[in-house]
Amino acid sequence: MATELNVPVHTLKTWLKRPPAGVAPSAAASGLPPSLPARQWSGAERLLALHESHGLSGEALHAWCREKGLFEHQLTAWREAFVSSAAPETAQERRETKAELKTLQGKHEVLQRELRRKERALAEAAALLVLQKKFQALLGDED
């Protein structure tokens, strides 16, 4: 004795659209923004994209990039950026960087002082020119 179920068609369609239990859709599970351009992705999203595309090569990589709206050169640039920023800095390099920073700060202060001095001299020269023109205008009236 079989029991017959009367399930509306739209309910069946809704059930088919849903992913099976325990399987998340790829775009939502990956956390990659589908509508945001890749150049506006955060560092975490870029790292996730690098992680997802790590084992891919050739046509599989190209297909994955098309699906996500990326270019292979973007992944390469992101990978290089993460690798270069993760390089550990030694104590010697930090000391050298601090010394360079102090040297540059000293040069900056010297240049700022020189700029202020030149600005004052320029303002004085402009004032003298204005006074000279006024004086000539007064003498021109007496002639």
UniProtKB/TrEMBL annotation:
Keywords: Coiled coil
Domain of life of the organism encoding this protein: Bacteria
Coiled-coil region list: 94-128
Protein name: Transposase
Protein source organism: Pelomonas parva
